[in-house]
Fold this protein.
Amino acid sequence: MPRVPNDEAGYPDSSPRSPWIAQMLPDGPGRPLTGEAQADVVIVGAGIAGIATAFWVLRDTPKDVVLLERDRVGRGATGRNAGQLTTYFERPLADIAEEFGIEQAADAQRALDGAHDLLDVLVAECAADVRVERFTGHMGMFTLEHLIVHLRNNEVRRHGNLSQETCLVSEEAEFLDDIPPEFATLYSVVPQAHIDELLEVSGAGYRAVLSDRKGCANSGALVQQVLAHLEAAYPERLRYHDETPVERVVVDADAATVQTPGGIVRCGHVVLCTNGFVDHVIVDTGDREIRLAREQRIETVVGYMAAFVEESPRPPTAMSYIRNAVIGGEIPYVYITRRTYDRPDDVVTLTCMGGPGEGDGASWHPDMPFPGPLQWAMDREVLPLAQPERPRGLPYDFLWHGPMGYNDGRTRVVGAHPEHPALLYNLGCNGIGFLPSIFGGRRISQQLSGFDLEPSIFDPRPDDGD
Ligand SMILES: Cc1cc2nc3c(=O)[nH]c(=O)nc-3n(C[C@H](O)[C@H](O)[C@H](O)COP(=O)(O)OP(=O)(O)OC[C@H]3O[C@@H](n4cnc5c(N)ncnc54)[C@H](O)[C@@H]3O)c2cc1C
């Protein structure tokens, strides 16, 4: 029988291993930038944000692109996430509506929902063969406060004529009679057994479920394939340099200079798709640092994941389970993504678990060990929800971590700096960046094409001091 650890010393630290990087092809020799170059657009960062930006700019504008990556393609968060296709904000949509107005909130949600279709365009036009699975995902709630927050979100969706998230409440919910009558048309009452069936748990106290369109894919393998396609399709307009850390960007009124250890690129626009890494300096020609508004400045945190393989096929799904009595509290929600996983010789079911453990990302490094106590926390806090039949104490097939760019506003930053139009951003995932990065890339290409875009919650805002 496997050993079941009973304290935090139960597991040793272990080497991280991402299931997505395990599926990627070798990169071949590095291609660092040397010397001087010119381009219409420099994109910094070859994760899903940078690659999607390159895709839309090359596809929809005549501009040429230099893409610079300090590591190799897809080795940041894009190769180390949960790979879930999801379009919610890490902040209630109704709060966003209060801050920006209901029209902009609904437009933002529509834009993210629409990124499912943009992903399909990206995959089809690049003939990418990564497995993309689509399904309905479910979130478990257990208090009236949870429910009301999400019903208010659904009101914003209704206002914007967007598809509603399905909301089911147990007939055994203690708060059933306290749900305000104005929400009556936004949920249905069902037997508790139905709630348990959707969430695949019983006796865990969940009393309501929110269900929405979800999916999953390997974003690391996807960006590797899209890059190969772009290099083949646009040999005259795309130059890619990896192992090229950008150290300094100097932004002029209508141009920018991007400095790396081996070379310099002068360009009309520079797009930061760095996920918020801050190991480079962005200044104006007077050597003054260029920043965003406080709420938009990115800090990196580290997210941790564990996954196990089951040989038997199981339907793909995504679940999340709120654990705070009040949304936004200290206890992280846990999330589980189950998918079909291709190995060289067979196809299995892979269940990925995340939630516990978040660290300061300033010192994140890809080879940093996965902490033993966190493996223990995954065993104790997430495994019973992910697969109650799996005994605790079994080794995981994959344990990994990755950097996430967060900001206080909990909304992505997409577009040109209002005071420095040559500097653009597509970053700040706030935990959910796969589809939003693809939306962001398209919006950047529209902006570079001179489209008159409506103001948006994603617009960069000027520095407002410390
Ligand atoms: C554990 C975890 C789970 C997640 N789960 C999900 C999920 O289920 N669904 C979802 O939608 N999102 C999820 N995310 C977030 C998602 O992975 C990210 O939003 C997305 O991958 C970010 O893509 P990106 O291109 O912005 O960043 P990255 O993939 O990190 O790419 C940024 C690139 O910029 C490069 N770079 C940075 N600085 C420089 C520089 N100075 N010079 C040159 N290159 C530079 C980096 O090396 C990196 O390759 C998760 C993230 C993590 C870590």
Observations:
- The first helix runs from residue 48 to 60.
- The first strand starts at residue 35 and ends at 44.
- The chain has nine helices and 19 strands.
- Residues 249 and 258 are 5 Å apart (CA to CA).
